[in-house]
Fold each of these.
Amino acid sequence: MSFRWSTPPRFQDVDAAGIVFYARLFAYFHDAYVAFLESMGPELALHRAVDSADFLIPLVHAEADFKAPLRFGDEATTTVSVERIGRSSYTLAYQIHRGDGQLAASGQTVHACASKAEFRARPLPEALRAGLMQHHVASESQ
C-alpha cells in the first residue's frame, strides 16, 4: 500500500517560467517522507526520533525525473512506496501527480540507518522495519 500526501504547489516554488523549479521536487519528496514516517507511529515521527532515538536515517542517494509541468494553483499528490528494505537501509519511490492525474515527477531516495553515537551502519530498528513493510511494493503482490 502506498502512502499519499497532498499539498498545492506554493508561489515561492515556481520559477520564471511559471512551473515548479525542479530542485523543489526534492522538498516535496522530503515533506511527504516526513508525513510518511509520522504515519508509522509517534516513535518514528522525525521530530521525535531526531531528539530521542539512538539511530539516524540519513539520506545517501536521491534522484528525480521531471515528467510534466506542475504550476502554482495545481493540486499535487505525492505517493511514497517502499521499493527495497535491506539490513540497514531502504529505498523509497516517489511519484507526484497533478490533480488531473498527469504524472509530474518521479524520484527515489535511499536512506541508511546509522547509530547516533558512532555514526556507523546498524540494523534498521524493528518498529521502522515493520512500518516500512506495510508500504513495501513486494508485499502488495502477496
Amino acid sequence: MAKLQKITPCLWFEGDAEDAVQFYLSVFPSGRIVDTLRYGDGAHMPKGTVLTITFDLNGSPFIALNAPPHDKFNDAISLHVACETQDEIDALWTGLTADGGRPVQCGWLKDKYGVSWQITPTALQDMLQAGDPKRSERVMKALLQMVKLDIAELQKAYDG
C-alpha cells in the first residue's frame, strides 16, 4: 500500500512569518519549530530572509511562508481547535485575540494576522448530536448568542 501523505496547512505571511510563528508558539502550550528555510541569492526577498518555517502546534504541522504581499487571509478557511476545558478556551481566546486580534461570533475569532480560528469545546459536538432535537435546538440557540463559547452556559441550555 502506498504511503499516505500528510496534509500541512501553509500560511502566507507578508514578511512577518517569523513574528507570526513566535506568536503562535507563545499562545499554544505545546509547539515547536521543526525547520527553517531561508532565501538565497537571486530571490525576490533579501538573501537570508526566512522563506518558510515548518512548525508544530499541539501535534499539528504548519508551514509559514514569508513572501511579498498577495492575498489576505479570509473566512473561507479557519483553523479549528477543540478544547476540553473552559480554561483552555479562555487561554487560547485571550492569546489569539491579543495585540490586534478580534472576537467574531459563535467561537470564531481572527488573530492579529487575519487568520480565522474556531475555538470550541469538545462537548459541543456531543450536545448537538445527542439525538434529542429539543436539547440540540436549545444548545444551538445559546451558541448563536455567544461570541466566546461558554461550556457551562451551553450545558445549562442542554440540560434545559
Amino acid sequence: MANNPFNIGRNGRMVLIWNGSRVDLPTITQFQSQQVTTALKSTPLNDKPKTFEVPNGWSGSFQVQRDSAKLDNLIASSEAAFWSAATITSGTIYFYADETDGSTTTWEYTDVAITLNNAGSWQNDNIVTQGVNFTASQRVKIS
C-alpha cells in the first residue's frame, strides 16, 4: 500500500450506533468536530493572570447524501420516544481516519445527542443532502 503525503477527505469513515443499534448512513459527504472547553481564569494579586481550559465535551456536524429514510427514521423514533415516555435517546459515533502511514485511527464519540439541522432540499435533478449537528461527552481514541 502506497503512503499518502497528507489526509484528504476520502480518508475518513463514520458509523453511528443509536440505542445499541447500528444506523448505516452509506454516503457521508462531510464530517467535522471540535473540542469544547470551559475557560477558568485566575487573576492573582501577586502574579500575572492565568487561564486553564477544562475539557467540556465535543461538538460537530456531518452531512449525508439521502440514500434512504434511515436518518429521518432515527430522528422520528427519538422524537416519538420523547413525546410518548419522556425518554431522551443518545448514541455513539465512531470515526475512522486512514492515516498517511497506512494505519487507521479510530475515535469514539460518547453520549452523543443529535439535531437534524437540515432535513434536505428537494428539487429536480439534484441530490438531497441532509445535515446533522451533534454534541458528545467525550472523544476517546480506540486504536
